[in-house]
Design a protein that fits this description.
- The chain is built from three helices and five strands.
- By secondary structure, the chain is α+β, with helices and mostly antiparallel strands.
- Strand 3 and strand 4 form a beta hairpin.
- The radius of gyration is 16 Å and the shape is globular.
Protein backbone atom coordinates (compact mmCIF):
# COMPACT_ATOMS: atom_id res chain seq x y z
CA UNK A 1 0.00 0.00 0.00
CA UNK A 2 1.41 3.38 -0.98
CA UNK A 3 1.75 6.24 1.48
CA UNK A 4 -1.22 8.19 0.13
CA UNK A 5 -3.47 5.12 0.17
CA UNK A 6 -2.43 4.37 3.73
CA UNK A 7 -3.19 7.97 4.82
CA UNK A 8 -6.56 7.81 3.06
CA UNK A 9 -7.38 4.50 4.77
CA UNK A 10 -6.48 5.88 8.20
CA UNK A 11 -8.56 9.02 7.62
CA UNK A 12 -11.52 6.97 6.41
CA UNK A 13 -11.28 4.75 9.50
CA UNK A 14 -11.19 7.82 11.78
CA UNK A 15 -14.25 9.33 10.07
CA UNK A 16 -16.17 6.08 10.55
CA UNK A 17 -15.08 5.80 14.18
CA UNK A 18 -15.93 9.39 15.06
CA UNK A 19 -19.22 9.62 13.17
CA UNK A 20 -20.59 6.19 14.00
CA UNK A 21 -22.61 3.99 11.73
CA UNK A 22 -25.53 6.20 10.90
CA UNK A 23 -27.11 6.53 14.35
CA UNK A 24 -28.17 10.04 15.27
CA UNK A 25 -26.61 11.24 18.50
CA UNK A 26 -26.15 14.34 20.63
CA UNK A 27 -22.64 15.50 21.48
CA UNK A 28 -21.99 16.09 25.17
CA UNK A 29 -19.93 19.08 26.37
CA UNK A 30 -16.70 17.58 27.71
CA UNK A 31 -14.62 20.70 28.38
CA UNK A 32 -15.39 20.92 32.12
CA UNK A 33 -14.96 17.18 32.54
CA UNK A 34 -11.55 17.17 30.83
CA UNK A 35 -10.39 19.93 33.19
CA UNK A 36 -11.54 17.85 36.16
CA UNK A 37 -9.53 14.77 35.13
CA UNK A 38 -6.40 16.32 33.61
CA UNK A 39 -4.36 16.05 36.82
CA UNK A 40 -5.93 12.86 38.17
CA UNK A 41 -3.57 9.92 38.58
CA UNK A 42 -6.11 7.50 40.07
CA UNK A 43 -7.89 6.81 36.75
CA UNK A 44 -6.19 3.74 35.31
CA UNK A 45 -8.37 2.72 32.35
CA UNK A 46 -10.62 4.10 29.63
CA UNK A 47 -13.50 2.27 31.32
CA UNK A 48 -12.84 4.22 34.53
CA UNK A 49 -12.94 7.49 32.57
CA UNK A 50 -16.46 6.58 31.40
CA UNK A 51 -17.49 5.61 34.95
CA UNK A 52 -16.22 8.95 36.25
CA UNK A 53 -18.03 10.83 33.45
CA UNK A 54 -21.33 9.06 34.05
CA UNK A 55 -21.09 9.43 37.84
CA UNK A 56 -20.30 13.14 37.49
CA UNK A 57 -23.16 14.04 35.17
CA UNK A 58 -25.81 11.30 35.41
CA UNK A 59 -25.56 9.68 38.85
CA UNK A 60 -24.01 6.50 40.10
CA UNK A 61 -23.40 3.53 37.83
CA UNK A 62 -25.76 0.68 38.67
CA UNK A 63 -26.56 -2.86 37.59
CA UNK A 64 -28.52 -1.56 34.57
CA UNK A 65 -25.31 -0.14 33.07
CA UNK A 66 -23.16 -2.24 30.75
CA UNK A 67 -19.74 -0.91 29.74
CA UNK A 68 -17.57 -2.15 26.89
CA UNK A 69 -14.09 -0.93 26.02
CA UNK A 70 -12.43 -1.25 22.62
CA UNK A 71 -8.82 -0.38 21.78
CA UNK A 72 -8.82 1.65 18.55
CA UNK A 73 -5.14 2.51 18.19
CA UNK A 74 -2.33 2.64 20.73
CA UNK A 75 -3.54 5.03 23.42
CA UNK A 76 -7.03 5.56 21.94
CA UNK A 77 -10.16 3.76 23.08
CA UNK A 78 -13.88 3.64 22.41
CA UNK A 79 -15.93 3.08 25.55
CA UNK A 80 -19.66 2.43 25.32
CA UNK A 81 -22.02 2.61 28.27
CA UNK A 82 -25.53 1.28 27.76
CA UNK A 83 -28.20 1.69 30.42
CA UNK A 84 -31.26 -0.50 29.96
CA UNK A 85 -33.94 -1.14 30.82
CA UNK A 86 -35.01 2.21 32.17
CA UNK A 87 -38.26 1.87 34.05
CA UNK A 88 -38.83 5.50 34.98
CA UNK A 89 -39.75 8.02 32.30
CA UNK A 90 -40.37 7.59 28.56
CA UNK A 91 -36.93 6.27 27.59
CA UNK A 92 -36.34 2.53 27.29
CA UNK A 93 -32.53 2.80 27.10
CA UNK A 94 -29.65 5.27 26.90
CA UNK A 95 -26.26 4.88 25.25
CA UNK A 96 -23.07 6.91 25.67
CA UNK A 97 -20.13 6.42 23.30
CA UNK A 98 -16.83 7.99 24.37
CA UNK A 99 -13.57 8.27 22.45
CA UNK A 100 -10.74 8.79 24.93
CA UNK A 101 -6.97 8.93 24.65
CA UNK A 102 -4.15 8.28 27.09
CA UNK A 103 -0.75 9.85 26.46
CA UNK A 104 1.06 7.83 29.11
CA UNK A 105 0.50 10.49 31.77
CA UNK A 106 -3.10 11.68 31.55
CA UNK A 107 -6.47 10.90 30.02
CA UNK A 108 -8.35 13.19 27.66
CA UNK A 109 -11.88 12.68 26.35
CA UNK A 110 -12.10 13.54 22.65
CA UNK A 111 -15.85 13.12 22.22
CA UNK A 112 -18.93 11.78 24.00
CA UNK A 113 -22.10 11.12 22.08
CA UNK A 114 -25.45 10.15 23.59
CA UNK A 115 -28.59 8.65 22.14
CA UNK A 116 -31.54 6.62 23.37
CA UNK A 117 -34.42 4.31 22.58
CA UNK A 118 -37.99 5.29 23.39
CA UNK A 119 -40.55 3.01 24.98
CA UNK A 120 -43.05 1.89 22.38
CA UNK A 121 -40.51 2.18 19.54
CA UNK A 122 -41.32 -1.03 17.69
CA UNK A 123 -38.17 -0.83 15.55
CA UNK A 124 -35.92 -0.54 18.62
CA UNK A 125 -33.66 1.98 16.90
CA UNK A 126 -31.25 4.33 18.64
CA UNK A 127 -31.92 7.99 17.99
CA UNK A 128 -32.41 11.46 19.45
CA UNK A 129 -36.12 12.04 18.86
CA UNK A 130 -38.16 13.10 21.86
CA UNK A 131 -39.89 10.29 23.71
CA UNK A 132 -43.56 10.69 24.66
Amino acid sequence: MTGSKRIFSVLLLLVIILTGCGEDSVKEDISVFNKSIELRTDINSARNVMVEFYNTFYGAINEKCKITEENLTPGRYRVTLTREPIFEGPKAAEKFVMIVKFDGMKWKVLIVEKNWKCKGNLMGEWGIEGCN
